[in-house]
Amino acid sequence: MKVNILSSFAAGILTATSICAIVYFSEDRNTSKPANKVNNEQVQLSEKEMKKVLTSKGYIVQTKDEYEKHLNEAKGTPQANGEQNQEEKTISKAVIVVSEGMTSIDVGKMLVNATLIQDAFQFSKDVESRGLQNKLRPGTYTVDSTMSYDQIITTIFQ
After folding, report:
1. CA dihedral (72, 73, 79, 85) positive or negative
2. How many CB atoms lie within 10 A of CB 31?
3. Reported pTM
4. CA 76 to mean position of chain CA atoms
5. Could you give the angle at the alpha carbon of 136 between the alpha carbons of 125 and 112, nearest 5°?
6. Cα–Cα distances in angstroms (integers) from residue 89 to residues 22, 94, 95, 143, in the given order
7. Burial class (CB in 10 A: 0-12, 13-18, 19+), 88
8. Deepest in the core among 24, 31, 53, 91, taking most CB within 10 A?
9. Nearest to 98 by CA among 89, 107, 90
10. How far apart are CA 139 and CA 142, in angstroms?
11. What is the 3 state secondary structure string of the chain?
């Protein structure tokens, strides 16, 4: 490259950067109070007016103290109801359909989706450690949340 072309390119970059900097720093950046633009005019809203506008649009506006109070109340409620929920434990049932070519990781993913196990990869490793990876046969298997981890494995990998 010639020196003239390179210096012209550098001068163009410098000019463009200068113009961008002038525009950036010349804008009014008064962000201390929220503002709405109505017909290209800035309107300053007080705290009460902002709450009124937000609540009229369906928002719930709380102070930090109110939020923490409600959060603490909500944390206290499940503990009382948690004892009742333990008595009313729901049983989830899953029907696993194994087709030709599926692997233990595929079965593990289905069990994770059914919330019967936590980790599909660990399930696959457990099946391999027991030497059952070749025992998977196509078919339909029904498992539920009352079954232990070992019972689930022995049901599917007969």
Report:
1. negative
2. 7
3. 0.43
4. 25
5. 55
6. 66, 16, 20, 17
7. exposed
8. 53
9. 107
10. 10
11. CCHHHHHHHHHHHHHHHHHHHHHHHHCCCCCCCCEEEECCEEEECCHHHHHHHHHHCCCCCCCHHHHHHHHHHHHHHHHHHHHHHHHCCCCCEEEEEECCCCCHHHHHHHHHHCCCCCCHHHHHHHHHHCCCHHHCCCEEEEEECCCCHHHHHHHHCC
The three state secondary structure string of 10-47 is HHHHHHHHHHHHHHHHHCCCCCCCCEEEECCEEEECCH
At 119, phi and psi to the nearest 5? -135, 120
**b/e per residue 97-115 (b: at least 16 CB within 10 A):** ebeeebebebbbbbbeebe
Tokens of 76: 């206290």
